[in-house]
Amino acid sequence: MRFFVLLMLSLSxxxxxxxxKKVHTPKVPKGDAEITxxxxxxxxxxxxxxxxxxxxxxxxxxxxxxxxxxxGFAGCNMIGGTHAEGRHGVIKFEPFSTLAICEDRVEIEQxxxxxxxxxxxxxxxxxxLLLYDENMLLATFEARYYK
Length: 147
Prior knowledge:
Blueprint lengths: L1 H16 L8 E2 L11 E7 L2 E2 L10 E5 L4 E5 L4 E8 L5 E7 L8 H13 L2 E5 L2 E6 L2 E11 L1
Antiparallel strand pairs: 1-10, 2-3, 2-4, 2-10, 4-5, 5-6, 6-7, 8-9, 9-10
């Protein structure tokens, strides 16, 4: 009888744990990330760290090496376009965006689009993508991976 009671208690404890919802959160990679096929979230612009409001989407870019495509979100509008990589961190973006009107994140959006146009080289430092115009840092993106 005692064995039966212990067995029932054990089963009920296991059953109670099964009700937790699994939340998909991004993983921060260890080591150097790859420029392509990585979700690059805007981390810093003009030397200021970017905090995404709770009710907003991340500003991000993602590059596809096979199709040389650029895709992302600039704060209000979707980003599309192409990119070309050269030797020694040389890069060229040709972005375009949709034309939705919004007021709350327009400064970030304009900055990101201008930074992509101006960028001519990149450096990957651990989990960060740094975009430069010659030696001037334009923007920093952080690599994120989803489960």
